[in-house]
Amino acid sequence: MSRKIKIDIDACKPRMVTAETIYSDYGAIIVWENTVLDALTINRLKIFGVDKIWVYEYGTMGAESEGPQSRSEEEIFTESYESDTEQFKEIIHDLSVGKTVSIEKTVQIADSIYAKKDQRRQIIECITQIRKVDEYTYYHSINVSMLAMLIGKWLRLRPEDTHLLVQAGLLHDIGKSRVPDEIINKPGKLNDEEATEMKKHSEYGYYLIQYMEGIDRRIQEAVLYHHEREDGSGYPMGLKGDQIPLFAKILAVADTFDAMTADRSYKTKDTPFHVFQLMQNDCFGYLDTIVLNTFLSNISHYYIGNKVRLNDGRIAEVIYINPHQYGKPVIKIGDEYVDLTITKGVSIEELF
Ligand SMILES: [Fe+2]
Ligand SMILES: [Fe+2]
Fold this sequence. Notes:
Helix content is 44%, strand content 12%. It is an alpha+beta fold. The chain has 3 domains: 4-70, Molybdopterin biosynthesis moea protein, domain 2 (Alpha-Beta Complex), CATH 3.90.105; 73-269, Hypothetical protein af1432, CATH 1.10.3210.10; 303-351, no CATH class. The strands form 3 sheets. It has a 5-stranded antiparallel beta sheet. A two-stranded antiparallel sheet has the order 1-4. Strands 2-3 form a two-stranded antiparallel ribbon. A hairpin with a 2-residue loop joins β7 and β8. α10 crosses α11 (246-261). The longest helix is centred in the N-terminal third of the chain and has 24 residues, at 73-96.
């Protein structure tokens, strides 16, 4: 290694090595000292508005190897997604052994998720992939935080608020660490007593993060109220409409989508189109209309061009998303265009 130099972020190249730890404006670590930079990390620094960084003058690592640079964007994304999940597991583990958890660790994971905010296609693909059932809560928390981030962006919230939403998404079900495992992992339907205990997770979560130093009040409220519903049918308080904070409304939409899309042990995996349909038909009145519409209209467009398998076995391509029925797009089968809102008996069974 040689001497430290300060360079412009635009002059920064993959495989350079950082000479100092780099912090975000609010003091969270973005990149540690002695980190070998890659394209994703450099991009992340740009997103955080970092202009200049300290690197070692001749300190590029493994310049002759094809290693990191030969990996695709998808591989880098998946690796980072898995690493976020692993780090999140540590938070849950610490909680389950009675340790108090600091907000810094959550902010670090949120930083890593936030750095992926422009990789929307990868986020959406990742969420609709099959995940391990026994690790459901971890992946679910990461997914909800990524979905909440997308909604925050689509609603044009300020970047700092969207970052808080990412943290709220991570922490929203943290109270499940206080619910007995037999209830969490029960494959069948919960009985009344078990369901009552399960419903306490939002309050448990609120208590767990209540004294986290430096945590934003809006995160705490979002955790407590993420199961409140517009008509007052939710829990724990039965709040209605405007009484429910915006962050909680956003988490409710993200949470519902991920739970419906997930491959749980007690139901088969739904296609996103079926989930759009269910959310559009069944969730109006329960979920905030603006948040839900913003979410459905934006996310559904990512499936244009996707290949799907129909209930009769034929393969088709998604051509147009109908804003009145997000779950019933116009598809192309061979040379024929079929509008699923009109044609009866044809449905999408599987997404490729
Ligand atoms: Fe929840
Ligand atoms: Fe959840």
